[in-house]
Design goal:
The chain is an alpha/beta fold. Helices cover 40% and strands 13% of the residues. The strands form four sheets. An eight-stranded mixed sheet has the order 4-11-10-9-8-5-6-7, sandwiched between helices. It has a four-stranded antiparallel sheet with strand order 12-13-16-15, with no helix packed on it. It has a two-stranded antiparallel sheet with strand order 1-2. The chain is globular.
């Protein structure tokens, strides 16, 4: 039986301390690979804690890939020793290997079913139905929008802080901006990352910029345009557009349900890769620790680089935030292979074009030498206001309110979908993090017909197939999977949305 000394936990919660102790035992080998862990009830009884505490700790370890569960058998330690990345990932396409948190959800079983081929999971629908004729041009419910409602932004507080900045920081406002951004904001970000993401970061490693797109362009200049870059397929389209606009060579890299497929990085002779391991867009995949270790091992083999986009890590609804690739890389003997990027556009507002990247020390020094002539692209007023917003604890409270709002919207939407007349015809995945999830629909409608039917019902939504690069075959296999972005959805719109989905599906009968 595993014994944990809780007298050493300090200010950590019981769940967090238990999770960390078990994780450390796995990493140091005292809990070897494939060893069965005690049941939740027996471990809780042995340690004198609640079953729910053990359950939450086990779930966090499952989410991060340190532990896996088998139905009716229990919990086991994942094998983390070195292995052939080519053999471990070959022939595994997106959707074929479920992560444990996906397997544990009854909604997710159909999309991520172990040992099924991609065509079994996403069958083509070749039957035809009557063409939809009446299409509304006005979309009443927008499931693609990234904006927030005005009641979610702290206008009064923000205005008050900005007035203080204007009154008390006149000299700072009128002074030239350093290329990396103001020290006050870089200090606030470094402190926040240490608390929230457990990242050991110094202000000298932080670079402020007007949007992640701008920071991507800086990173590409820093690493070199002569490198060959990889992007996730499916994935967020904008990085590929930036690479193309800068005349940089890039290749799409296939995703399986554990993340980017490592052997393709070697096969395509790539030098760098852009990934979103904490919550992939649009699939919602969370990269487990085993795949993270593979990816870092690939990067260290030839001075390759990883650009880690942590775009919505703040909106994780179960468990604690996942460890970043940047942190895993920093604890090794590596020279620094990971560039970390994040933004405030998701947590505050898209119109506040303020993002940041964190460079490993070797690249931070290189940035000063090669790109120190750049001027920071964010105004000093915005930077000083945001710095105060973070330092005075307002940002943490704001995040808590936003998470509660989005959790309520998501839970209400999922509940109504589960009670809808078409509940048996849908499956949902990727709902535990971020502000979107995938909704797979069984229908005889083609994807184009379904899109027209949804538009006629007043629903504007993106399809998963839109996020693939250069792959018509995959488009056909993944038809009728919707990317439900609920960040702009209001509570009163949920019932009309479900009714609109029902109306669209009835047109396919």
């Amino acid at each position: 039986m595993i014994t944990i000394d809780f007298s050493q936990r300090g200010h950590e919660s019981l769940t967090d301390f238990l999770y960390l102790q078990l994780k450390n035992k796995i990493l140091e080998g005292s809990l070897p690979s494939n060893q069965k862990l005690p049941s939740k009830r027996s471990l809780a009884s042995h340690l004198g804690i609640s079953v729910i505490t053990v359950q939450n700790a086990y779930q966090q370890l499952i989410d991060e890939g340190y532990v896996y569960s088998e139905e009716k058998r229990g919990y086991f330690v994942t094998e983390l020793e070195a292995f052939s990345t080519e053999e471990s990932t070959k022939n595994h396409h997106f959707g074929s290997i479920p992560t444990e948190n996906q397997k544990n959800s009854h909604f997710d079983k159909e999309i991520f079913q172990k040992s099924h081929s991609i065509t079994e999971i996403f069958p083509n629908h070749n039957s035809t139905s009557e063409i939809i004729s009446a299409v509304s041009e006005k979309h009443t419910i927008n499931l693609q929008a990234a904006h927030i409602h005005q009641e979610l932004f702290p206008f009064s507080l923000w205005a008050s802080l900005m007035r203080k900045v204007l009154h008390e920081s006149k000299e700072r406002i009128l002074s030239p901006l350093p290329p990396q951004g103001l020290l006050e904001l870089r200090q606030a970000i470094a402190s926040y990352l240490g608390t929230f993401r457990n990242m050991q970061v110094q202000p000298e490693q932080v670079v402020i910029g007007a949007g992640t797109e701008y920071l991507y362009s800086l990173a590409l200049q820093l690493l070199g345009r002569n490198l060959r870059y990889g992007v996730e397929n499916p994935g967020y389209q904008k990085p590929a557009h930036i690479l193309s606009a800068m005349d940089v060579s890039w290749n799409p890299v296939t995703m399986d349900s554990a993340g980017i497929v490592i052997h393709q990085l070697e096969e395509k002779a790539l030098d760098a890769v852009l990934v979103s391991p904490a919550h992939h867009f649009p699939t919602g995949i969370i990269m487990p620790i085993k795949r993270r270790q593979e990816l870092l091992a690939w990067a260290r083999q030839g001075s390759r680089f990883i650009l880690e986009d942590d775009y919505d890590s703040e909106f994780r609804f179960t468990g604690r935030p996942l460890e970043t690739l940047f942190s895993l890389d920093a604890t090794s003997d590596s020279q620094g292979q990971v560039i970390y990027l994040n933004t405030f556009t998701k947590t505050l507002t898209p119109s506040l074009r303020l993002s940041y990247m964190v460079l490993p020390w070797n690249l931070a020094k290189q940035f000063h030498q090669q790109l120190g002539f750049y001027s920071c692209t964010v105004s000093s007023i915005e930077q000083l206001t945001l710095a105060r917003f973070i330092q005075e604890g307002h940002y943490e409270k704001h995040l808590s309110r936003r998470k509660n709002h989005y959790r309520n919207i998501r839970d209400n939407l999922l509940l109504q979908l589960s009670r809808s007349p078409f509940a048996a015809r849908i499956s949902i995945s990727g709902k535990d993090s971020g502000l979107h999830f995938l909704l797979k629909i069984k229908t005889d409608l083609t994807e184009e017909q379904l899109k027209l039917a949804l538009e006629a019902a007043g629903i504007q939504v993106a399809f998963l197939s839109q996020y693939f690069h250069l792959s018509d075959k995959i488009h056909q296999e993944l038809t009728n999977t919707l990317v439900i972005n609920y960040s702009a959805l209001k509570k009163e719109q949920i019932s009309p949305l479900v009714a609109g989905l029902q109306k669209a599906l009835e047109s396919g009968r």
